[in-house]
Specification:
Elements (H helix, E strand, L loop, with lengths): L8 E3 L9 H9 L3 E5 L5 H14 L5 E5 L10 H13 L14 H10 L4 E5 L6 H6 L3 E6 L2 H9 L4 E5 L5 E2 L18 H9 L6 E4 L5 H9 L4 E4 L13 H9 L4 E4 L7 E4 L2 H6 L9 H15 L22 H17 L6
Helix pairs in contact: 1-2, 2-4, 3-11, 8-12
Length: 347
Amino acid sequence: MFDELTFPVIAAPMAGGPTTPELVAAVSEAGGFGFLSAGMLTPAALAAQIDRTRELTGREFGVNLFVPQPDTGADVSAHQERLQAFAREYDVELGEPKWDDDAYPAKLDVVLEKRVPVVSFTFGPPSDVVRLREAGSTVVVTVTTPEAARRAADLGADALVLQGFEAGGHRSLFTDDARLPGGGAEYGVLALLRLVAAHVDLPLVAAGGLVHGADVAAVLAAGAVAAQLGTVFLRADEAGTSEAHRKALALAERETAFTRAFSGRPARGLVNRFMDALSEGAPAAYPQLNSLAGPVRKAAAKAGDPEAISLWAGQTYPLAYDASAAVILERLKVEARDAAARLDRIR
């Protein structure tokens, strides 16, 4: 269905607050396609966001779910001990480092009951493709390697989002290799697109570091049916991005890097004091570390302190800007057309 969009740009699902019904609706109303993020929401909150989005737009949108990860059994005690310094600084008690499934079965029931037209999955392929299709949903899986793309295709995905290492936020690794900072092989979005297109006959959506219309034109020319952008919408008027996060993005003074320190899975964000202190040696233990660090992040966010919150962003974040979602879409469209016109040089 993405190849039928008025403008083939998708607003990536951004868990933890940036994605809102208002952002999703605004992107869809402007001719793109928006995704709600169900990660870390309760089933009731997800249902409310779906209902609110439908109040705001009659256009289609999607929902993204985090596929539950097996408990790795990793020892989190050393990380917990190092995290205590931050807990004392912000005068909070650390959370309980417990494993849970993010209420995945209940949230899957919500999207089935609400008959969400497009349901995407992060961290693995779904186990309920038949039920989703019976409910009329298109099934999309986010992958980071050609091997994962083939596996998702074999398991019945209707389309794939190819996430390059340039992307902000969590990497959609099916398996997190604790020996590697990025958790697995790191493919740039264009390389991943070409490698997957050579072996998988499915609609492909490109994601990772795309913030300009020329980026959209580039991935479309390389064979994608659409481009998925997240970072460029972090500073959108309709986004729920915190003020501390917005200010750090606007200053554009920080490097980006992968870290497990916040959640236990590799994610790209702006480097801050929390990442500097806790990234090295952080175990592959999701969602235990997410629960453990939760009170620190909340206290830092309340204080407007960017040094202990997850400042997720892609590598090209300095090129993002403040504007409404509609203005961002229109600017991307103009830039993409200009870039496409330059292809006339190819004879």
